[in-house]
Amino acid sequence: MIYSNCIVVAVTGGIGCGQTTVCKFLEEMGAKVIQADLVAKREIESNEEIREELRKYFGSRIFYRDGKLNRKMLAKIAFSDEAKTERLNRIVHPRMVEQIISEIEEARESQKYEIILVDAALIYELNLEHMFDAVVVVSSKMSYRLERIKKRDNLSEAEIMSRINKQIPIEDKMQWADFLIENNDDLEALKIKCRKLFHDLKKMVKRKSHSVKTDKQ
Predict the structure, then answer these.
(1) Dist CA 159 CA 183 (whole Å)
(2) What is the pLDDT of residue 62?
(3) Which domain holds residue 130?
(4) Is 27 within the bounds of a domain?
């Protein structure tokens, strides 16, 4: 099926809130998902300029002997103080954003998707919200966030809180959101909320298509 009009939506939140799980469910329902973390990883692996800048600032130990990035080592060093975090962001984020824009345009031009999602934790931190037709914020109680991150990343509570505190508070993001999903229950409950969100996004597509038709008349 060909879709001549689509919407581009950011899905964001905070570390451990579950935004990637939300995107996975929405992808199963038919949305196209672009994951910012994977884009950044590919850029680091393939862009020699980025790799050299990272090596100069953070040292050769952030790479394994085979040349692959040691993500845990880079995170440990980069999140140890604010200046290093800012330097990492300045090196990686501009290229990441350029590539995300390129992938959005590629998905749009393919006309295969009504809904294109960008899964990215730092939408508001990087002032990217203006790029999107809507922003979905996924929130969760702090106790659940800590539990998820401990299981996933094997970090101490102090390390987790250090990373959380470097992001805009989730309460602020919730106020700015066009759509809000609270992820405080089991996966089945979350999936039900995602179905409702997908339905609402489909309605946005219809409104946009109607607006385009009206403008052409």
Answers:
(1) 22
(2) 94
(3) 7-216
(4) yes
